[in-house]
Write a structure and sequence with these properties.
Blueprint: E1 5-7, H1 10-16, H2 23-40, E2 44-48, H3 53-58, E3 70-74, H4 80-93, E4 94-95, E5 106-109, E6 116-120, E7 126-127
Parallel strand pairs: 1-2
Antiparallel strand pairs: 2-3, 3-6, 4-7, 5-6
Helix pairs in contact: 2-4
Length: about 130
Amino acid sequence: MSDPLRFRSQRLEDEFFGPDVHPVVRMIVLESARYALEEHGWLFEVTSCIRTVEEDRAAGGHGIHTTGRAVDVGARSIPEKLVKAVTDHVNARWQYDPQRDRLTVCYSAPHGTGPHLHFQVHERTRVRRDVP
């Protein structure tokens, strides 16, 4: 299989594979990208990893990107049905925090860099169950 990810810039690729991005969010994005490509033909494009505090505020964030615990994947031209399928797949497999079950690892957002999937992890993020 070909690489399931592309990056909006070399900076993003360096950040994504660098030491400051949480290894669990990196693993979830890579796993989700493989699923999206194999099952739906969607090649993920990473649009955001680590931001400065100023960049995060400018994008309407709450500071999570500054810690390397979040990654955004562009979904500007992706049908809503496909975005939902990938989001549901990720959240069926991963639990953000067992103590806060309403929060999810993946959700779609229409703001910031445009429509995108937002992946986030907590120190207690864990596999909920294996899904094919």
